[in-house]
Amino acid sequence: MRLLINAAFNTKVKVGITIYIQQLIPELARLCDLTILTPDPELFSSYGETIRLPEFVRFNFRRTRWTIMQMGKY
After folding, report:
1. DSSP 6
2. DSSP assignment, residue 56?
3. Which terminus of the chain is more solvent-facing, meaning fewer CB atoms within 10 Å of its CB: N or C?
4. Which pTM was predicted?
5. Nearest to 22 by CA among 33, 2, 36
6. Exposed/middle/buried for residue 38 (C-beta within 10 Å: 0-12, 13-18, 19+)
């Protein structure tokens, strides 16, 4: 099974959703092939294919706008 994960969050700040994503991705990688969309590909490169996203997606309004307008490309 292949899975696309949108990890377009500020993963450099250890709070809430970023902690969850950092714990979830290694577990999912054991179960399926991952493609991870992230501004920090080096953080997740050992768990599957990573696609670098622009830095501006780290911030709420910009991330929401990017997700609505660009996510369909992946």
Report:
1. E
2. G
3. N
4. 0.75
5. 36
6. buried
In this structure, which amino acid lies at residue 25? I
Q: Which tokens sit at 52?
A: 């670098």
Q: Determine the distance from the C-alpha atom of residue 45 to the mean position of all C-alpha atoms in its chain, rounded to a whole number.
A: 11
CB 5, CB 36: distance < 8 Å: yes
Tell me the H-state helices in 1-74: 16-31, 41-44, 60-70
pLDDT at residue 35, as a whole number: 95
Q: Give the residue among 64, 67, 56 at the shortest CA–CA distance from 10.
A: 56
The tokens describing 8, both together, are 């377009």
